[in-house]
Amino acid sequence: MMSRYSVPILLLLGVCATHAAGVGQDSPQSAETESMRIAELLEVSERTVVADVGAGDGSWTWRLAARVGSKGRVFATEVRPRNVEGIRAGARARGLDNVTTVLGSESDMGLPAECCDALLLRLVYHAFDDPSRMRDSLFRSMKPGGLVLIIDFRPPVEQLTLEMKDAGFERLQVDPRWQGRSDLFAVLFRKAVR
């Protein structure tokens, strides 16, 4: 027999379960909207060379590859060999000749010097084991004036800004509620020309 509290509790449990199921998952429309915004901020177009740093399953790599076209290049960097192989297999299956997978380390992305016009770090910066060396790696891989977009939830924006400034980047723009989410921010940086 249900008590007078059963229905509200069941409704609350249903709402919580629905919210939990959606955490970390983007609808196709919101992912496409986010992809367009990322491309705009990073000035991604045909011929752009961009790296998806900490590419995971490659879902953002595929979106970037479609935008840079056959004359551009996407480097998908990962520290897990199985993810690198999964992205490599995914690129083959999709017929994407413009994707290059790179097995990096906890302290270096493994990218060639000054290879990239743009870098995307989506929910990866906070996980760096050796942030200082990774920032140096970011700097080395960028062409002068190249753009870096960091989407994350920590460290705080001001701390991130100081860390990136010390590594040779200037902050261009901050979105404190990335795609309307209170749990994510986005900060756009440019490699300072020395």
What's a concise summary of this model?
By secondary structure, this protein is of the alpha/beta class. It is 39% helix and 25% strand.
Task: Explain what the structure shows.
The structure is a single chain. The protein is of the alpha/beta class and 194 residues long. It has a single domain (28-191), classed as Rossmann fold, CATH 3.40.50. It is 39% helix and 25% strand. The protein is built from six helices and seven strands, in the order ααβαβαββαβαββ. It has helices at 6-22, 28-41, 59-68, 81-94, 131-141, 157-166; strands at residues 49-53, 73-78, 99-103, 116-122, 142-152, 169-175, 185-191. Strands 3-2-1-4-5-7-6 form a seven-stranded mixed β-sheet, with helices on both faces. Helix 5 (131-141) links the parallel strand 4 (116-122) and strand 5 (142-152). The chain starts with 5 loop residues before the first helix and ends with a strand. The model is unreliable at 5-24 (pLDDT under 50).
Features:
194 residues; alpha/beta; Rossmann fold
Topology:
Layout (H helix, E strand, L loop, with lengths): L5 H17 L5 H14 L7 E5 L5 H10 L4 E6 L2 H14 L4 E5 L12 E7 L8 H11 E11 L4 H10 L2 E7 L9 E7 L3
Parallel strand pairs: 1-2, 1-4, 2-3, 4-5
Antiparallel strand pairs: 5-7, 6-7
Query: How much helix is in the residues?
Result: 25-40%
Order the strands across the largest sheet as they lie in space.
3-2-1-4-5-7-6
What would the principal axes of the Cα set say about the shape? globular
Average pLDDT level: 88
Care to count the β-strands? 7
Multimerization status: single chain
Described by strand count, sense and barrel closure, the largest sheet is: 7 strands, mixed
Q: How far is the N terminus from the C terminus?
A: 74 Å
Structural class: alpha/beta
Number of domains: 1
Rg of Cα set: 19 Å
